[in-house]
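Cross-posted from the bioinformatics board.
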Amino acid sequence: MKIKFLGTGGCLGTPQWNCNCKTCTSDNPKNFRLRPALLFEIDDKNILIDFGQDIRYQLIKYHIKKLDYAFLTHVHRDHQNGMEQLSLQENIKLWTSEDVLEELLAKENGMLWIKTRNPSIDIDVLKPFSIGDVKIDLIKLIHQKDYIKKRVACTGYLFKSAKFSFAYLSDYNDIIEKEKLYNLDLIISDGNNWKTTGTGHVGIEGAIKVYNEFKPKQMLLTHLNHTTEHTEVEKYTKQFGNIAPAYDGLEIEI
Ligand SMILES: [Zn+2]
Ligand SMILES: [Zn+2]
Ligand SMILES: [Zn+2]
């Protein structure tokens, strides 16, 4: 199985427009981050997690020629606003959790527009299933309340095979289904900013707590905003264990 980070930035990407901070003016290509998206390749099937504003560019940049499944974590612009691109793929299955699907259908007018453009798209609630020997499941998360104090549902994803197990947790400040997270090889976690904030992100501080609680063999941070300079994060997190910031284009073969 291959994992590729197509984007590791926060909701505004890095560099951020009109910002002169050290991350935004850095020459280190690891500080150039598109909106968060991840690609898994299992037995010739391509699974995309999230499709925000940059997804068209990401699919072209990384020469991704087909998608079999697209998983959505939640209905925020940096994760869902590139959905139109999925209408260009035949027979793609779009999956998410029940509460995220409810929000998606409400926001996108029942998805009629995308079905009109491409009737072969299938949109449904993910039930645990397998590709080859890799089992795929959801992990319920708590994200934020938006400006009208409505809860935004968010889901993580869990991948387990006899050889390797990992979870993808983006945009959360708490985890509901904690029992699913013990003894994993890898947790990919939100690292939006240095501290846990009231905006629905555990950030680096919270990710380290998650690492200490669930003790994965490795943790990689994603959804990093411009306050988190790559080299500084790398230097800081390694003192807590096998934790490091991911970066755009990072590929792991497992
Ligand atoms: Zn986000
Ligand atoms: Zn900046
Ligand atoms: Zn979000």
